[in-house]
Amino acid sequence: MSEALKGLKEQYLRCVRCGQCRSVCPVFEVVRNETATPRGKVFLAHLLATGELEATSQVQAQLSRCLLCRSCSKECPSAIPVHQIVTAARAELAEKTPSPTKRLVFKKIWARPRRLALAARLTRTIQALGLDRLGLSLRMLPPGFALPGRLPRRPAHTTIPAINPAIGETRLRVGYFLGCSTNFMFPGVAASTVAVLSRLGCEVVIPPELKCCGLPQLASGEAAAASALASANSEVFRLLKVQTVVSDCASCTVALKETPEFAGIKVTELSELLLELVTKYSPGFRQIQKPVTYHYPCHLSKAQGITEAPRDLLLLTCRDFREMDSATDCCGSGGTFALYHYQTSMAILDKKIAAIKKSGAEIVATSCPTCIMQLRHGLARHGYKIDVVHSVELLEKSFEHETLL
Q1: What architecture is the 3-96 domain classified under in CATH?
Q2: DSSP letter at 400?
Q3: Interior CA angle at 339 toward 336 and 340, to 5°?
């Protein structure tokens, strides 16, 4: 048994199978099978830990049906960290029944920046030749392969300087953790993040040596790889001696906050830092005129317990902010979850898309690149022409004196 799973024994033994987790699990709401419930996964982990259940691909498949959204961990009356138990069980399974494909992707490619950049260039070439559309139409590629959309020509790290001075007085030296999704899929979000922080008096440092935050590796069972990435990244920021570290990605922020390797390094959630700076040093801005709603990423609202800052920021920058129904419900993205469980992911997403449509908003803001990707995909599937943006992009627009959105 892995040390991680062994160390959680007291936690999974506290589960009394009350069923409270069933009422909040987005996967169970769609699947309606007991093995898909959080308590079912805790029980599987227990059996796996005691040796009563053999590590097999079937068990691995059952434990993969979890978004790690933390809805269950947040609502559990016994305060059981279900997400930690699931990730520990996945690590156990990855060790005993390793998947060559997952190990290649998450350990050999995703964990190594140069190889990841090469994979992104290869993907752009495939898209330019139309081979992705062909592969999807012939069902040679999983439907989830279409989720990222067309990759931009250049990643963010090739267009944004490593050191970005503050505009005017320097109030804060900030380390910007540029995550993989933002870097390769949403370079405009990175540009907006740097522009807004600079405008608010921050010197923004983007270390070129940064690697993945480690969350995808942890979720896939490659715990050792995740720890190695965290160690490398924490050492980079310690040498820089920045006053705080931020990321535009709620998932990256959680990974940095919770990893032991980042102990002693201050990590601040972006919307909280921006709200503080705007409140103290607002340079003046005009409000966005179109109706805006906000989707709360699970790793923001549930993992960090942050809901007020992003809403308050939008209330300042948007004339017509509309809170959608079930705004904190999961969108079904879960990182790579949609690649393995596309139909389940889309069923969860459909509920979110209906809430967006009902709100009457013309713009959806959020704070997670993979949520942006998921929401855009869902809106396109339904034929809705509603923009999905990162909230920091709206803040940058509100600072401009040109025509707003």
Answers
A1: Orthogonal Bundle (1.10)
A2: -
A3: 100
Question: Coil, strand or helix: which one is 79?
Answer: coil
Residues of the chain with CATH 1.10.1060.10: 3-96
Dihedral over alpha carbons 172, 177, 181, 186 (to 10 degrees): 30
Q: What is the pTM of this model?
A: 0.94
pLDDT digits (tens, 9 = 90+) for 180-205: 999 999 999 999 999 999 999 999 99
Q: List pLDDT tens digits, range 233-255.
A: 999 999 998 999 999 999 999 99
Is residue 1 over pLDDT 70? no
Q: End-to-end CA distance of the chain, in Å?
A: 55
Domain 156-274 maps to which CATH number in 3.30.420.40, 3.40.50.150, 3.40.1390.30, 3.40.50.1860?
3.40.50.1860
Backbone angles phi, psi at 244, to 5 degrees: -160, 160
- Rounded to 5 degrees, φ, ψ at 22 are -60, -35
> What is the Cα–Cα distance from 22 to 268, expressed in whole angstroms?
32
Structure tokens at 142: 């999983």
Phi, psi for 142 (deg, rounded to 5):
-65, 145
- Tell me the CATH architecture of domain 284-399: 3-Layer(aba) Sandwich (3.40)
Considering the chain, tell me which residue range(s) the CATH 3.40.50.1860 domain(s) occupy: 156-274
324 CB-near residues (< 8 Å, 6+ apart)? 293, 294, 295, 355, 356, 358, 359, 361
- Segment 326-342, tens digit of pLDDT: 999 999 999 889 989 99
Cα–Cα distance list, 5 to 34, 170, 299, 334 (Å)? 22, 46, 22, 22
Task: Answer yes or no: are the C-beta atoms of 63 and 48 closer than 8 Å.
Answer: no
Structure tokens at 318: 């948007």
User: Measured between alpha carbons, how far is 154 from 130 in angstroms, rounded to an integer?
Assistant: 19
Token pair in block for residue 222: 């490659």
